[in-house]
Amino acid sequence: MDPLFYLADTLIFIGIFSLLSLSLNLEFGLTGLGNFGKVAFFMAGAYAYTLLAHAAFPVYLCFLGGALVAGLIGLIITLPALRLREDYLAIVTLSFGEILRTIVKAEEGLAGGVRGISVPAVFHLGSSRADALANIALTLGCLALCFLLLQAVAHSPYGRVLRAIREDEVAVKALGKNPVSFKASALFIGSCIAGLAGGIFAQYLNFIDPTMFLPTVTFLVWMMLILGGAGNNWGALLGGVVVELMNRGTRIMKDFVALPVDPNNLQFIFFGLLVILVLIFRPQGILPEGPVKTAARKEAQEWISLL
User: What percentage of the chain has pLDDT greater than the value 70?
Assistant: First the structure.
């Protein structure tokens, strides 16, 4: 296999999962919302992109449509749960992920059911080096745009309100703000980014089926954010890079070392040990929010009090 193709594959998957990690950081790291159904919005974006591509829409409309469909589904599903305790949101999103996957498995007409569905590709990775580089540019370009957007959000007055909600929702209510509307908007934006990642994923692989969207995807994204550092977009990026490189490393290790266990099982052992060590010795993550957290809390309180 051409080393460029393997490098391209690694970079593309790093970009896709970093997008998911960034979207979860907006929801949980900044706003304190426990979304345990991240894979559902990832899947919604992938299938929406695929159906739009089969309908011969322009590729940019396919990506945009996939992101908007995932965002709207996230908004509709989670809005009722936002008025309840935080743990209800986790239960609702986790359950919805399995419900959506079951629906897709049963849908033979549009989604192909358990057999899956082919995806019209913009670039074919295996056909030429130019296509491989184009896939990298597409994925990392979308990642860069979303990162810049989320950095702007984090340092905006809107982002300060999100942090204030995370720190003390009662105080935010007392200051005349509506936490539900801010939470809903954060979930909408986060779900849109997850849907965009799903569209890139579908376009890249040229085929999707329900077995690609298991709950383990959600827990993998949570692992990225915990390791990298919740509340810090740079930490979310770092977590995506570290986990994906470890994932690839354990797969190729079998070619150089006789492993006593299956590589897939070995990576989960490594992930588990790494999470335990980080939670014990550095619970705030590799790149924590740090002093920004205190400053942001103070800024948020001052800004809200002026409104």
Answer: 87
